[in-house]
Specification:
- With 132 residues, the protein is an alpha+beta fold.
- The protein has 2 domains: 13-50; 53-131, Immunoglobulin-like (Sandwich), CATH 2.60.40.
- It has one helix spanning 19-48, and strands at residues 53-62, 66-75, 81-88, 94-102, 108-116, 125-131.
- The longest helix is centred in the N-terminal third of the chain and has 30 residues, at 19-48.
- It is elongated.
């Protein structure tokens, strides 16, 4: 009785591993990975470090024709820009939207702004802040 050979027939399937091709794939994968990391780092820096104005709604008080919004704005010294605030009614319709400007040397500003509305607003949302 003979045993079956576990070797592949020579010349039929090619080399089991092409070291040169494997090395090229590893280099290409490393380069693409480095480019992807650099791109993610660029977008992170641009979004976080370059954003000169940040704000949040501390509280709000609604009446029949306006909403008083207490905003806390943090910005770079001397930076100027604006924040957009909106209000919605109970059914979700937008009843008011306005931009409020901020400038000056202060880095932290607490300010109560009045947003005029077309109907009674039930929310005060900060849509975003942008530097000039």
């Amino acid at each position: 009785m003979s045993t079956a050979s576990t070797r592949l027939p020579e010349g039929r399937y090619g080399r089991s591993s092409d070291r040169r091709a494997d090395r090229k794939l590893k280099i290409a994968g490393s380069v693409l990975g480095a480019v992807l990391l650099a791109l993610i780092g660029f977008f992170f820096y641009h979004y976080v470090a370059k954003n000169e104005i940040n704000a949040e709604v501390i509280s709000f008080r609604a009446s029949a024709d306006s909403v008083q919004v207490h905003l806390e704005v943090r910005k770079d010294a001397g930076a100027s820009g604006y924040c957009t605030v909106r209000s919605q009614s109970a059914d979700g319709a937008e009843v008011g939207r306005a931009d409020f400007r901020f400038s000056g040397p202060d880095t932290r500003i607490d300010k109560v702004v009045t947003l005029r509305t077309t109907a009674e607003g039930t929310t005060a949302q900060l849509l975003g802040c942008h530097a000039d």
